[in-house]
Amino acid sequence: MDNPRQVDEPALEHWRSHPRRRQCRILSDPGMLRECNNDLFDPESLRARGQWTGSSSGRRATHFLRHEGRDWVLRHYWRGGLMARVATDTYLWTGLERSRPVREWRLMARLHELGLPVPRPGAARVCRHGPVYRGDLLSERIPDSHPLDEWIGDGKDTPELWDAVGRVIARFHAHGAWHADLNARNILIQGNGQVWLIDWDRGRIGYYRGLQDNLSRLRRSLDKWPATRERGALGWPHLLQAYNEERKPA
Predict the structure, then answer these.
(1) pTM for this entry
(2) Which of 172, 147, 149, 159 is nearest to 222 (CA)?
(3) Mean pLDDT of all residues belonging to the chain
(4) pLDDT for the residue numbered 197
(5) Handedness of CA 179, 183, 98, 118 (dihedral sign)
(6) pLDDT in tens, 69-96
(7) Which of 2, 39, 89, 181 is an active site residue?
(8) Annotated catalytic, 181?
(9) What does the record give as the active site (predicted)?
(10) Sequential DSSP letters for 234-246
């Protein structure tokens, strides 16, 4: 059974000026961040102040930082698919509450409140420029963790691990928590075996119709990569068995 946690009431800060005449607004959790401004979303500023601690590889890197005694993950919102050829990181403005960073922040805060294993969100930033906006999300970094595909690639995917993954997914599905891109990179495993689901952009809660699609998408991601295809096929029955056991009515 999930144990609800107390979550501090978020504070929606006032509009702030930003370079290039964009208007930025920051939604933050005062229980997580006492000080939150635009500098926290600027990798160059973080480097200059000695708060930047690293980044993922690739052109669209995720950045890591240290602030107020906590480790954080800073993720910019990038477009994918065909739209990325037209607009790499801008989205049509339809209102602050409908923006992707704010929606993901609120969803993650709700999932955390339900006691589900998601990184706790610290702040979301939305910068509007006329009819479009750009966005960023700051969330806590899960220590000593690696994606499921790395555990599989290293041969550390025991039946117990597959069991744990299946049970955690079932806990989310019990609340109708639908993940828009459930794949082996968005499942983090800590050294102690704790399982986390990350990257909740475009996710939903109270949405029960698409839950089977979540499992199908995860299976396709395992089949897609040669490093996970064979071991994924062996581990999948363990995941499904644990998932179904967890989903059985009490």
Answers:
(1) 0.89
(2) 149
(3) 90
(4) 99
(5) positive
(6) 999 999 999 997 766 667 899 999 999 9
(7) 181
(8) yes
(9) 181
(10) HHHHHHHHHHHHH
